[in-house]
Amino acid sequence: MIKIDHLSKRYSKTLAVDDLDFEVRPGVVTGFLGPNGSGKSTTMRIVLGLDHATKGRATINGKSYQDLKSPLHEVGALLDAKAVHPGRTARNHLRALAASNKISKARVDEVLEFAGISSVANKKVGGFSMGMSQRLGIAGALLGDPGVLLFDEPVNGLDPEGIKWIREFFQSLAKEGRTVFVSSHLMSEMALSADQIIVIGRGKLITQGSVDDLTATAKGTVYVRTSDPKKLISALVAERGEVQEVNDNGLSVSGLSSDAIGESAFRVGVVIHELTPQRASLEEVFMELTAGAVEYGSHPMGASSE
Amino acid sequence: MSLVSASKAEWIKFRSVRSTVMGVAVMVVFTIGLGALIDTAVRGHYHEMDPIRRLTFDPVSASLYGTIVAQFAVGVIGALFITSEYSSGSIRATLAAVPGRTRLALSKLLVLTLSLFVLSEFVSFITFQLGQTIFSGVVPTASLSSGVVLRSVIFAGLFLTLLAMLGYSLGLVLRQSAASISVYVSLLLILPLIVLAFPQSWQDHITKFEPSQLGQAMMSATPSANGFSSWTALLIVTIYVAVVFGVGTTLLNRRDAGASQ
Questions:
Q1: Cys-Cys with A56: which of A7, A191, A200, B226 at CB 3.0–4.6 Å?
Q2: CATH assignment of A2-216?
Q3: pTM of the entire structure?
Q4: pLDDT digits (tens, 9 = 90+) for A49-64
Q5: Which of B11, B17, B111 to mutate to test binding with chain A, by most A CBs within 10 Å of its CB?
Q6: A277, A281, A287, A289 alpha-carbon torsion, rounded to 10°
């Protein structure tokens, strides 16, 4: 379990993290979402004791990172996959990390095998592709078989097969009862791989909850296709639905459930060809939530920013 | 988690990169090679030397001239040992594995000091012996059976070890390879040139504190009139290293290590 307790971090003038307060529970994959520059990586670095908090604190299983006796056995992290000495081989990189926490050489070979990079274990890391580096980083995070895992943008640079692999991998770690905390700036990715989501923008907590809760907060619509749109529209409006004509014979209805629409169509004797609830995509929810909190937004050319 | 396991990790890191291997190769080959070259030149021209210089000729420090190259190599090896962690970003993985920063600084120092001590003593003894072999017959020679000579050769190795520690400590403070190496080289080469601009009366007091002069004092069998004794020189260089290392470790503890440079 990771606990972020009223955490703030100031770098000279910028307040990168602003009074963040949340918990990451074991047994589920928790997504940590926010636009670029919103303070995700800073928060993760503070959890790992790399950066010092300006205010508040971050604890792992109740302890500060600095107080962990053998940290790799409790926490595994992948922050920046390319942050490895380019002249060192993958195996030596892992062996050094392992030695510092009294982890055996056999375990090094095990995680190399698991991450699928055994065949390049004796190659220098400098020649690795982003995907291979991510796999090396994941191998490093698993070295001490930790109960808490942090991954900062782990999907970057992975090919589709790798992405599928890593999603299943996160889920399996969570099923084993581990705490899995994964950051991303892509809501669509989190919608597929996370159960719980924490959304931040400009260092502040925007919202948190389950993926289902978040999508439920957005207004849903129902798409209806019928042979007699006029008759159905008047029936639906009578029941206080909001109806928009989307295309020939196709309507978008909000304010009524698909059940209610089906029943009123039955009462007025209109044939329905299609009746589909449209869930607002998590991506849309995310855009809506973080609209005011984008650090590096794009602006039309020629227009002045601010 | 102990200093021992942290040091084991650092030992793996130290020997698994090319900069260390190259640095060591440069140090061994050039020091011994250049030493032999200088010694051969001294032998060839010894009879042309003026009598006063011949009288004060010190076969020990003459045979150890080659270690000048090593002085640069060891500083670079030491500095890169820490600055490469910052340039590659691996410092984050390192500190995540060893969160105790003083322990990390000490474990690196330990690995560097032990390995460079063995290496430096090896180079010093080989250079010295080779020099005496080249000198023999023409130039006066020295023997390790003399206590003073033995001390000089051991101190030559010690001086190199301390310089490696100094380079590493500068790296801790500055975190960037180029900056650390520049400052290190400046201390050895540029500082004496700056001192030359001062009035002679000042120079007499300052020069003997220069690292290069202290090194000379440590490795010569016959101390110069204006310099420190070899033991005092050893003490002063050790204090230099301790101060810079102390500052570097304090900074390592205080600074954020996460954000890239």
A1: A7
A2: 3.40.50.300
A3: 0.86
A4: 999 999 999 999 999 9
A5: B17
A6: 70
